[in-house]
Amino acid sequence: MRIILYTGKGGVGKTSVAASTALRSAQLGYKTIAISTDAAHSLADSFDLPLGNEPKKISANLWGQEPELSHALATHWGTIQQWVMSLLSWRGIDEIIAGEMAVLPGMEELANLLYILDYYERGQFDVIIVDCAPTGETLRLLSFPEILRWWMDRIFPIQRKAATLLRPMVKGFTDIPFPSDQVFKTAEMLFTQLEKMRAVFTDPEITSVRLVVNPEKMVIKEAQRTYTYLNLYGYATDLIVCNRVIPPEVSDPYFDVWKKRQSQHFQSIEERFSPIPIRTIPLFSSEVVGIETLRSMAEALFGQADPTQVFYRGQPQTLSKKKDGCYVLSLTLPFITKHDLTLNRKGDELIIEVGAYRRNIMLPLTLIDLPVHEAKFIDNQLQIHFEPVKKAGLPK
Ligand SMILES: Nc1ncnc2c1ncn2[C@@H]1O[C@H](COP(=O)(O)OP(=O)(O)OP(=O)(O)O)[C@@H](O)[C@H]1O
Ligand SMILES: [Mg+2]
Q1: pLDDT tens per residue, range 233-271
Q2: 300 lines ligand 1 (CB under 6 A)
Q3: Are 318 and 330 in contact (CB under 8 A)?
Q4: If 0-12 CB within 10 Å is exposed, 13-18 middle and 19+ buried, where does residue 54 land?
Q5: Atom of ligand 1 nearest to the CA of 19
Q6: Tens-digit pLDDT profile for residues 323-378
Q7: Does 284 sit in the ligand 1 pocket, CB within 6 Å?
Q8: 0.70 cut: is pTM over it?
Q9: Which of 107, 206, 89 is CA-nearest to residue 147?
Q10: How remote is the CA of residue 42 from the centroid of ligand 1, in Å?
Q11: Could you tell me where the DSSP H helices lie in the chain?
């Protein structure tokens, strides 16, 4: 079973690439579903077929689904949402507004993740292709299990105790809607699901994230940031898809500067993402819509290769916190020695040069201002130790 998520900056071609991957996967005989987690769905437009809340058969072995938020919420979140709604309307907020507000940030993402987990557990499909929303939202989606788990771990047991103790007393003189046992049960069920979700999504043999980019500066920069965070959350990236590359047969001088720029940007993609493999897709002469054009895209992207394979194994970049509060950024850099290493900072980027080899790392927010304490090589790994994060002292 494989789960493949496509993400990247808005408009780079995520939906088209996801749809064409799903088509090829189904063609190879895998039972495949393409599911969109972007509230602004466009999978149906890409396939040029109507899709809806439930999986809809597109062709042999291929299904498509665009779950609406309200449907996903009702399926997975109903009880908790109702409680949040009753709490909000108790505060005098209009029912309709309460209904809107009860969609807490992240609920939508969670509802979508639950769909995917559900398919995974039921083993209905061999391959699940996920067309994600643009980067920011996807990162929120992927970090959600971790964040919610933290919250549930710490807050929920306390709340539950308080609810059990206080409910009879409070009931007497206020009508505060206390969470019912049903709310707690649902929350506990979710908690178990989150645990499973994390296990499934961080298993590199099951789940791969693929970053779709165009050879353009801002697009690459955003993908690089995503990549850093994916590493931080423990998700495996197995492929970079560089879409809209002007093909060599375009000889009109109008495109000369474009082509030159694209080739420079392509080099910078290699610097930023190596050793993750990069595959390219040309800029087609018209937009990529409908099964036939999507097939051509799959052909350009994968050739004869199986698109569901794990294209890269290993995590070339990891960040861990040592007991002394020090963060260590480890990078796999094969075939080099420590003698020729230089480290440079430029804003939130760390530029590593080893001889002719250059790597460009986007630092997570926590590390941006921390000085590097030391750098050492251990078994093909460059380990960069940052000074510990200073704890804010209490005012005297
Ligand atoms: N290689 C290509 N050649 C020509 N047109 C392309 C190519 N890739 C994508 N397109 C077109 O670009 C537009 C945007 O593509 P797509 O919807 O796949 O991007 P997206 O990243 O999913 O966008 P969004 O962030 O809005 O979800 C579509 O009209 C699509 O047909
Ligand atoms: Mg899209």
Answers
A1: 778 999 999 999 999 999 999 999 999 999 999 999 998
A2: no
A3: yes
A4: exposed
A5: 18
A6: 888 888 888 776 556 566 788 888 888 888 876 667 778 887 778 888 888 888 88
A7: yes
A8: yes
A9: 107
A10: 10
A11: 14-27, 43-47, 69-76, 78-90, 95-101, 107-122, 135-173, 181-201, 217-233, 256-273, 291-302
* CA of residue 225 to ligand 1 center, whole Å: 21
> Which residues lie across from 331 on neighbouring strands?
317, 382
From edge to edge, which strands make up the β-sheet containing 207-213? 56-59, 62-65, 32-36, 127-131, 2-7, 207-213, 237-245, 278-282
Return the residue matching tokens 């082509």: 259
298 CB near ligand 1 (under 6 Å): no
Tokens 């930023």 belong to which residue? 272
Residue whose pair of structure tokens reads 């590593």 in the numeric block: 352
In the chain the domains, ranked by start, together with CATH numbers, are 2-302 (3.40.50.300), 317-386 (2.60.40.790)
Take atom 15 of ligand 1 and give the residue whose Cα is closest: 13
In angstroms, rounded to a whole number, what is the distance separating the alpha carbons of residues 170 and 38? 42
